[in-house]
Task: inverse folding
């Protein structure tokens, strides 16, 4: 399996964190492809390969989709591939998907949808203008042109939420809601309502997920680690607090997510 990330063009950088691709180069991929963690992002995923199944812990029935929208996740999901894999994805910033779809994103949190269920016009543009036989670079170039054109039809942005998201991201989620409200200058009720619509999560849950995302990146780094020190450096009260978040978001404590060799050295 080959995974690559690409930076979006400047016009899309306020909305998109990265564009990514996953390919098995025409070969059949392993059936169990692994686990996808919550990351605070809505994703647009285009499937040019064979059908994939995405199965979340709270929904045991697999969902087989072609082009899809993945709503905000608050727990891990598992991927199962059937045959060759050829995916192109757009990972939006936490508030970046809203201007393209202009629907309340909280209605789609925890859900995986056919793209045409949410954005039929965008689905038609992708089907008509992107040839599956093209190279990854050609696909990305045309997809970005389509997304820039889509912004002209759906120019709605929530600048208050975008500002709040930037403050949360700068703090890696380590910020209290009272401090956030003070910096933004709005009421808690007002921000909560706007956040649910434009992000799909509450501000507090986004903070927790972004802090977890950083913790996940940290434990994936090689070398020994002190769990208590790591927890405190990431803004957790203690090691038990970090473990509770991992159990909720990743479905297991961090030591179980390491390689067998690492897990043994850390126990």
Result:
């Amino acid at each position: 399996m080959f995974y690559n990330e690409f930076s979006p063009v400047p016009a899309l950088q306020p909305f998109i964190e990265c564009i990514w691709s996953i390919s098995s180069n025409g070969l059949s991929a392993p059936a169990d492809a692994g686990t996808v963690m919550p990351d605070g992002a809505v994703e647009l995923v285009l499937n040019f390969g064979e059908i994939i199944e995405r199965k979340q812990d709270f929904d045991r029935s697999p969902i087989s989709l072609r082009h899809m929208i993945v709503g905000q996740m608050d727990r891990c999901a598992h991927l199962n591939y059937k045959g060759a894999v050829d995916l192109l994805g757009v990972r939006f910033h936490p508030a970046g998907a809203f201007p393209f779809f202009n629907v309340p994103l909280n209605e789609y949190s925890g859900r995986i949808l056919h793209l045409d269920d949410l954005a039929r016009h965008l689905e038609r543009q992708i089907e008509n203008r992107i040839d599956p036989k093209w190279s990854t670079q050609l696909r990305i170039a045309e997809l970005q042109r389509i997304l820039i054109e889509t912004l002209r039809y759906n120019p709605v942005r929530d600048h208050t939420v975008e500002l709040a998201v930037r403050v949360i991201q700068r703090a890696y989620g380590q910020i209290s809601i009272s401090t956030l409200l003070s910096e933004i200058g709005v009421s808690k009720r007002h921000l909560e309502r706007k956040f649910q619509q434009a992000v799909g999560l509450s501000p507090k849950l986004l903070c927790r997920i972004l802090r977890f995302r950083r913790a996940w990146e940290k434990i994936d780094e090689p070398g020994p680690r002190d769990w208590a020190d790591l927890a405190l450096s990431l803004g957790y009260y203690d090691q038990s607090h970090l473990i509770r978040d991992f159990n909720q978001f990743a479905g297991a404590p961090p030591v179980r997510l390491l390689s067998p060799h690492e897990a043994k050295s850390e126990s």
Remarks:
- The longest strand covers residues 16-28.
- Residues 260-267 have pLDDT under 50 and may be disordered.
- Residues 40 and 94 are 6 Å apart (CA to CA).
